[in-house]
Amino acid sequence: MAIQDVPGSMGTSASFILRLGQAIFSSASLLSMSLGVDFYSYTAFCFLVTVMGLVIPWSFTLALLDGYFILVQCPVRQLGILLVIVIGDWVLSILTLAAASSTAGIVDLLLQADESFCPPQYCSRYLISALLAFLSWIFSLASSLFNLWLLPSL
Amino acid sequence: MAIQDVPGSMGTSASFILRLGQAIFSSASLLSMSLGVDFYSYTAFCFLVTVMGLVIPWSFTLALLDGYFILVQCPVRQLGILLVIVIGDWVLSILTLAAASSTAGIVDLLLQADESFCPPQYCSRYLISALLAFLSWIFSLASSLFNLWLLPSL
User: Fold this and answer.
1) Rounded to whole angstroms, how far apart are CA atoms B52 and A34?
2) What is the distance in angstroms between the Cα of B72 and the nearest Cα belonging to chain A?
3) Chain B residues touching A6 at Cβ < 8 A
């Protein structure tokens, strides 16, 4: 199969959309968690903020690269570059899943506790942040799977 | 590359050891979480018990199959069977990671809380269960990566 035929792999418009989705969802998750909420009192929330801080520059850079490759009509064919992208994607998607699950576990616990422990306006922010992190994870998993699919043909 | 040359893929002794490790660690995690501890008061702990209940039969069956294939000196070469094993491994490893992270997040929160909320003998059991679940996830990830590596050659 020709490399252009794999939709979602590096240098295609589907990949650009996936990267843009990752960057948007992870930024929204970070903003929802960090603005006006005392996230630093929970280890899992600090972990989520750290991981989102790693995912945002990674996704944004790759979105820019994808945009450039679409403009010059030249998909990436170098094995080394793709290997780095696939490994980076896998590591970040594992970290995102771990951060999103631990946040979701704690949000569930806080929602069951009484309101003095977690005011409703805080809890809803935590919940939205966890949901957005899960969405970012799904997009990240999709792009790493598409790039992995392309690897054996190189 | 010949199929027997991929160590850790289905039907090799390395794969048998990985499967055995998964079965042992997930059983130990389940026992540590469920025996004598009130795990059902936390959603994440119930999720961990459910996932471990899925991982144990899966790993144990595949360990038995691996043992059989080693005895008859016949590695698995059917694409369909390997595809089912790889997809099952991926799904279970994602579920195990999610369960282990959410459990670890809650254990960390409970360790920070006062002792009336979580007696030390309970908390250490939860902690051990989360650690064993992470170990089971590492083994599960390893065997799914080895089997995935084998797929394009079939």
Assistant:
1) 33
2) 31
3) none
Most confident listed range (A95-104, B9-18, B36-45) = A95-104
HSE (side-chain half, CA atoms, 13 Å) at B48: 41
Query: Among B4, B8, B7, which Cα is nearest to B18's?
Result: B8
> Min CA distance, B78 vs chain A (Å)?
19
pLDDT tens sequence across B78-118: 888 888 999 999 999 999 999 999 999 998 888 887 767 77
Whether A40 and chain B come into contact, CB under 8 Å, resolves to no
Cβ within 8 Å, pair B108-A152: no
Residue scoring higher pLDDT (A68 or A11): A68
Looking at chain B from residue 52 to 71, which residues have their Cβ under 8 Å from any Cβ of chain A?
A: none
Residue numbers in B near A152 (CB within 8 A): 152
Question: In which band, very low, low, confident or very high, does the pLDDT at A4 lie, cut at 50, 70 and 90?
Answer: low
Q: For residues A43 and A17, is the Cβ–Cβ distance under 8 A?
A: no
**A42 in contact with B at a CB cutoff of 8 Å?**
yes
Cβ–Cβ of A109/B152 closer than 8 Å? Answer: no
B103: contact with A, CB 8 A cutoff: yes
pLDDT, tens digit (0-9, with 9 covering 90-100), for A25-63: 999 999 998 887 777 788 889 999 999 999 999 999 999
- Predicted TM-score (pTM) of this structure: 0.89
Contacts of B153 (CB under 8 A, 6+ apart): B1, B3
**Is residue A67 within 8 Å of residue A17, measured between CB atoms?**
no
Q: How far apart are CA B74 and CA B55, in angstroms?
A: 25
Which pLDDT score, from 0 to 100, does residue A128 have?
92
B31: three-class secondary structure by DSSP: helix
